[in-house]
Design brief:
Restriction Endonuclease
Length: 561
């Protein structure tokens, strides 16, 4: 049961989120969940929002295209304005979601006309997804109160029983409190009991390794949330918890089936195991089942296995007692060793997460150079959240700016943002030719997005036209046009008045193009040919030469900064 202290703590946190995002009070809970649980950027949150008139009970939809299959997360939230946490999620909200799902799947007459502009745009994207395959749909019921009543939960599950690709999850007061407390939870002492004497250790200077076989039930004990054992403790996974693909993902389904099968004894041989990095790892010698003590453990590889075993335990806890898992534990206080372990054990993905690259030399150099300019470069997400937002440059945003402005690839800035810290890393962060120009481009993007945010507020109304709504998707294309026009005119964009003029020209070019392109907005601004059409329009407005260089070469040989 929630205490008065906990209720007040969460209330104050949501007020802080409200101030940081400058959003309405009833949306602070949604912003908190999208940012802290799902790791969305400010821009992704704005694009996901559908709240407003004619939202059919849906407050946000986020499409995760980095997974296979694509995952669609639908959010319905209820934020109680009082501090009272003992209120169940309202059952009448279920019917709104079910009605939307039914109408969407059946494409009822006038379905799109019943939606507000934001929800209509995303629904068109969803329809395009279904034309190319069936995505997984996860519906989240979120509130700062308590879950649905059992009979209402049963009604919900019964209504969706025929849709194997649709799952539901509830996210309420205790889960929100975990988000607030997660940083404090990261340094807790944890234990893993080894199976019999199946344990080996070695030490090399300031690095120590322990390899052991442990029961799957021990993994479940390790990762289970203390307040809600059916959920994983996100503090153990840091960023990795957000890449869990769900139990319906084919790989995770196979892990689950293997753990519950008659041949579950071979699980140890078939699974890659779990890798843990911690600051300290010890175990007593001479015991049959030694308990390994870990300080500040982080599971850097094995998130899918861990979650699948948690699900297997919920289905039949007696069976997983027969399942053994290989665990590698590395003790080190050196951040570089911890980073290398995380990269090496996740090498099969061939994707370098921004957190894994946060201590790279190029990131540190950029941070130092921007610090000398009075700016805070966030190598890690929300690293300087106590500093003014207008002085903070996020590493991901930095990469998107370079892609759109310097490398002239605005569609990749939006479409391929997951590749910024992998495929495009060197081209963006290592080969910087003019840091001051990038800072000016960042200032320019802030000014574009100030206009963008105004449009987002307006697009809740049916009177907002399509050309105006397009700005919600076009920020990097406007920045691209600013780069094109500035180069042609031979001017520097460090001057605010110059930026304002070029932004207005860029916005007008985008609007003109939208009027003649009937495709979905999402598709338009992820199509590489769109920038070619924008260039053609710019030529008429700005007399650009026919041989104008559309895209700079990826490799830039100039010096750093």
């Amino acid at each position: 049961m929630a205490t008065k202290f906990d209720i007040d703590l969460l209330d104050r946190h949501l007020r802080q989120v409200q101030a940081e995002f400058d959003c309405q009070r009833h949306l602070s809970l949604l912003h908190c969940i999208l940012r802290d649980e799902f790791g969305l950027t400010d821009e992704q949150i704005v694009e996901a929002l559908t709240d407003g008139g004619n939202d059919r009970g849906i407050d946000a939809i986020h499409i995760n295209r980095s997974t296979d299959p694509v995952i669609v997360n639908i959010f319905q939230t209820k934020q109680y304005q009082s501090k009272i946490a003992e209120k169940n999620f309202p059952s009448n909200e279920i019917d709104k979601i079910l009605s939307y799902i039914h109408d969407f799947l059946n494409q009822s007459d006038a379905f799109l006309d019943s939606l507000n502009p934001a929800l209509r745009d995303i629904s068109v994207e969803l329809a395009e997804l279904f034309n190319h395959g069936r995505p997984l749909i996860r519906i989240f019921f979120c509130s700062n109160g308590t879950p649905l009543l059992p009979e209402q939960r049963l009604r919900l599950e019964s209504s969706l029983k025929g849709y194997s690709y649709i799952s539901t999850e509830e996210f309420h007061f205790d889960n929100l409190l975990d988000l607030v407390l997660a940083p404090q939870n990261a340094n807790r002492e944890r234990f893993l009991k080894a199976s019999s004497n199946q344990i080996f250790s070695r030490s090399d200077g300031d690095v120590k390794g322990i390899i052991a076989s442990v029961s799957a039930s021990e993994i479940v004990k390790l990762i289970a949330n203390a307040k809600d054992p059916s959920r994983a403790d996100r503090a153990l996974f840091n960023e990795n918890i957000r890449v869990f693909l769900g139990i319906k993902n084919p790989v995770n389904k196979n892990i689950l089936q293997s753990a519950l099968s008659e041949d579950r004894f071979v699980f140890w041989y078939l699974n890659n195991g779990i890798t843990i990095v911690c600051e300290e790892a010890t175990y007593p010698q001479g015991y049959a089942h030694p308990a390994i003590r870990m300080i500040a453990p982080q599971i850097v590889n094995g998130a899918q296995t861990s979650h699948a075993l948690l699900e297997a335990h919920q289905r039949d806890p007696s069976l997983i007692n027969d399942v053994s898992v290989l665990v590698r534990i590395y003790e080190t206080k050196r951040s570089d060793i911890s980073q290398l372990v995380a990269i090496a054990t996740n090498s099969q993905t061939r994707i370098y997460n921004r957190d894994l690259m946060s201590n790279d030399k190029a990131q540190i150099r950029i941070q130092k150079a921007l610090e000398l300019r009075g700016l805070y470069y966030e190598r890690k997400r929300r690293e300087y959240e106590d500093q003014p937002r207008e002085r903070r440059i996020d590493a991901l945003k930095f990469g998107q700016i370079v892609l759109a402005y310097t490398l002239r690839m605005p569609e990749r800035a939006r479409r391929d943002s997951d590749e910024i810290f992998s495929a495009y890393y060197d081209d963006i962060f290592t080969n910087i030719r003019d840091l001051d120009e990038i800072v000016s481009a960042w200032q320019c993007l802030r000014e574009i997005e100030a206009n963008h945010e105004l449009v987002i507020a307006k697009r809740r109304r049916h009177t907002t036209n399509r050309a105006m709504r397009a700005l919600a998707y076009a920020n990097y294309h406007v920045l691209f046009l600013v780069s094109v026009l500035a180069q042609h005119r031979g001017i520097n964009i460090s001057d605010p008045g110059t930026r304002k003029t070029l932004i207005e020209v860029g916005i007008n070019i985008v609007k003109e193009h939208i009027e003649s392109d009937e495709r979905g907005l999402y598709e338009i601004f992820r199509d590489p040919k769109t920038k070619e059409r924008l260039i053609q329009l710019a030529e008429r407005q700005d007399q650009l030469p026919e041989d104008f260089q559309l895209s700079l070469p990826l490799k830039i040989d100039s010096g750093l900064f």
